[in-house]
Amino acid sequence: MEITNVTEYQAIAKQKLPKMIYDYYASGAEDEWTLQENREAFARILFRPRILIDVSKIDMTTTILGFKLSMPIMISPTAMQKMAHPDGEYATARAASAAGTIMTLSSWATSSVEEVASTGPGIRFFQLYVYKDRKVVEQLVRRAEKAGFKAIALTVDTPRLGRREADIKNRFVLPPNLTLKNFEGLDLGKMDQANDSGLASYVAGQIDRTLSWKDVKWLQSITTMPILVKGVITAEDSRLAVENGAAGIIVSNHGARQLDYVPATISALEEVVKGAGGQIPVFLDGGVRRGTDVFKALALGAAGVFIGRPVVFSLAVAGEAGVSNVLKMLRDEFELTMALSGCNSLADITRNHVVTEADKFGVM
């Protein structure tokens, strides 16, 4: 069957993957209200296209933290990619590099920072979970920097793991042939079978619940890499991110896997952008499945978007070629959306190109 859009990969991945693995990637927290809302909120934003504009040349290039990208579509950190495909993070890294965009490697990757760097040139960010043992964190940050990673995406919404009921039912655990490669040799790379989710038990034992803004300062003291704060969904925290020297913000609800009943990220985006006051770039993570979604995020003030699940599902179906195809489809759809909206470059995309529910009710 010919795949014509990003969403189609999910159903094929479901047929292909063992239930425990598919459920780990697909599920959200508790009632999965936010999981559904991350998608549905995009559907409530409509376009106000401008016509009779010369759109014969469309430029989607952008600069993120000083790095030139082919498009404002980047790859979010997703854990344990070798569960999806034997090439795992290697395939994702190659696809991102070939597409001229950024891959963010998860702390909980099944390939190490060094292994991913060995795939060749590419702009890569490293997602960081702060462990109770700060020596481990320091070592990991240094390794990422040495391996040529360009920024840290600090996940701030996970002092504890969200309640993901599919993982509890399946007694989720990393398959025995795989390890969390970045922690191998530190006795932290193994995840034991537990009475609930093996990952939830691992997080409870290893991840630092005391993490606060002072630790952002601490991180800045141990690395020259810029720090993106991932998991901000309010204006208050957006302001604090600026005050504490973050280089950027990723508006994220962790793919709806942490606190259920938080708004969709596309709904929280404008508030966070306002809070940042134009001082640092704000990115959107969550629910992006179409080029139209990318355009909507940029119109509401995002400097770019990150995609997560589409990467693991396409990886499961077709390895590197699958991830490349997802990036290509999103790129092509986004280019078409720009043309049909009357925009030649990202700078041409304005707030007036979209209308939200809030606009309709005159809230703004």
UniProtKB/TrEMBL annotation:
Its cofactor is FMN. FMN binds at residues 77-79, 106, 127, 155, 230, 252, 285-289, 308-309. One of its GO terms (cellular component) is peroxisome. The keyword Flavoprotein applies. Transmembrane segments: none annotated. GO terms for molecular function: (S)-2-hydroxy-acid oxidase activity; FMN binding. Glyoxylate binds at residues 24, 129, 164, 254, 257. Its EC number is 1.1.3.15. It is an enzyme of class 1 (oxidoreductase). Residues 1-359 form the FMN hydroxy acid dehydrogenase domain. It catalyses: glycolate + O2 = glyoxylate + H2O2. One of its GO terms (biological process) is oxidative photosynthetic carbon pathway. CDD domains: alpha_hydroxyacid_oxid_FMN (cd02809). Keywords: Flavoprotein, FMN, Glycolate pathway, Oxidoreductase, Peroxisome, Photorespiration. Its main location: other. Belongs to the FMN-dependent alpha-hydroxy acid dehydrogenase family. This is (S)-2-hydroxy-acid oxidase.
